[in-house]
Filamentous hemagglutinin
Amino acid sequence: MLNKSHIFGVLAAVIAIAPGTAFAGQVQNNQQNINQSGAAVGSGNTVVNQANQQAVQNALKIKKGHRYGSGGYQGQRSGQNIGQSGAAVGEGNTVVNTATQRAVQNATQLNRGR
């Protein structure tokens, strides 16, 4: 039989292994926003706006008991927005806007039968 210290040890190990995991009955929300602007006045100036966003969400659902047992619901929501603007007044000025976005959502279901 497991005592309380063993149970807490197992729980701590699960949290350490999967800190970004949602378990049954939970919803994960992620919202990332970047707004960049730049201005160059004169000649030979360069404005560079570079934005990178990455969101990774993992969900774990463990079904117990019968084959058709319930394991609860899960939800994952992710939103990413990038706004960039640049202005160059004069001669020989350059404005460069670059952006990358990546969103990964994983869901895993484990069935534990009798």
